[in-house]
Each structure stands twice: as C-alpha cells, then as structure tokens.
Amino acid sequence: MRIVGIVFAISILAAGMAVAQTVESGSFQVDLSDIEGPGPELVPHTPEGTVNALMNPGFESGSLDPWTSTDWFVTNDDSNSGTYSAEVIGNFRVCQTFPAVDVSEVSSITFYSMQPEGVALQAVDLFYEGEGSDQFLDSGPGVDWTLIDVTGDLRGSGSLNQICVWGYSGGGAGPDVTRLDDVTVQVAGGVPSLPWPALMLLVAALTGLSLYFVRRQRRSAS
Ligand SMILES: [Ca+2]
C-alpha cells in the first residue's frame, strides 16, 4: 500500500511538473505538449477591390500609433516587409480601433507573426461596436514570419471596430518574444468616411463658394 501511495505521489508530482509547462496567450492557458505547432503555410492574397481599414498596418511610421499597447514596441531588428515590425515579450496585446464596418463588408483579416522560441500560441480579439468581443486561438505562428488568417473567426453579424493580437508567456527557457507585421482588415469598397447626404452638402457648399468668388472677381473687374 505504501508503494502505491509513493507511486501516486510521484504521479501527482509529475503532473505538477507538467503544469509548469503551461503557456498563456490572452486568457487561454494551454499545456506546451498540447500545442500542435504552426498550421499549413498560407498563400498571401488580397481580395480585389478592397482596402485595408487599418492605419500604420506594417508599423512603417516607426512608432505604434494608432496602435495602442502598454508593452508592445516598434523595432527595426526584423520585419516581414519594410523596415519595422512590432514586438513584445510576454502575454500582452496590441490593439487598433478603426471606423466600424459591417461584417458583410469585411473580406479578410490577416497578419504576419513570429515566435522565435517556437511556441506557436497566439490569441486574437475581435471587437464589435456595442456588442462586446470574441477571443480565439487559431494556428499559432512559426519561428519565422508566418501568415495567419483569422477571417473565419468573424461573427455572422455586427460591426467590427477593433482588432487585438496577443503575445504569450511560458513554454521554455528563452525570452517570450512575439513579432507582428502587415496586419490587414480588408474591407470591400473602402472604409465608410462621409455619408452621402453629408457629401452632397459639402459639394453644394463648395459650388456655392466658388460661384461667390467668380461673381466677386467679375464685379471687381468691371
Ligand atoms: Ca513592417
């Protein structure tokens, strides 16, 4: 009986040691041995007739703005394209809010990411105006730049207005580095800017203004 007890205690200890391999990304906690690694390599594809709803999507301004984060920073150590990418060490997110767009107008949501330590765990948040958010895990990035496509995680209805991408913590002795570049929220027909009535008013006002100046010029000439 004592031997059984000792074996049981060792099993508990082993289980405890396995828990030490827990990796966190966002609010997900996954055992390192359960992570399947990066998914199949994807082919980059920009749907025709669409524009990116995000500003500074590849961090080429050299700073985060208008992305927001307390822990991510822009680096020129590495990039998927251009000179810069965003980097974080640990389980923190970087977010960008953009003018709300109906989900039916969103053609694709993709980004490039890498986790040099080889963990492949990355949570993503999608926020909907006035309707909360979803956090999900897809195939994580590889040790080199990996195209991640999260279009399938979009809700069937609602207005998308924010995306956040997470780093991770745990999973090995190396630093918990995640890098991000070239984030796209491709929107059909562009991001709504001025509604039609406002646009008509603006055109009418500009026409009126130019007519006024033409008349004034004629009067001063005569
Ligand atoms: Ca870049």
Notes on the protein architecture:
- This protein is elongated.
- The strands form three sheets. Strands 3, 4, 5, 7, 10 and 12 form a six-stranded antiparallel sheet that branches. A four-stranded antiparallel sheet has the order 6-11-8-9, with no helix packed on it. The protein has a two-stranded antiparallel sheet with strand order 1-2.
- The model is unreliable at 3-18 (pLDDT under 50).
- It has one domain: Jelly Rolls, CATH 2.60.120.260.
- The chain has helices at residues 2-19, 196-221, and strands at residues 22-25, 28-31, 50-52, 73-75, 85-89, 93-102, 106-114, 123-128, 133-137, 146-149, 159-166, 177-188.
- The chain starts with a helix and ends with a helix.
- With 222 residues, it is α+β, with helices and mostly antiparallel strands.
- The structure holds calcium ion.
- The site of calcium ion has 9 residues, from loops.
Short description:
With 222 residues, the protein is of the alpha+beta class. 20% of the residues lie in helices and 33% in strands. The chain is built from two helices and twelve strands.
Q: Could you list some keywords that capture this structure?
A:
single chain, 222 residues, alpha+beta, Jelly Rolls, 6-stranded antiparallel beta sheet, 4-stranded antiparallel beta sheet, 12 strands, 33% strand, disordered N terminus, binds calcium ion
CATH topology call: Jelly Rolls
Query: Can you give the mean pLDDT?
Result: 87
Helix content: 10-25%
Shape: elongated
| Low-pLDDT segments, ≥5 res | 3-18
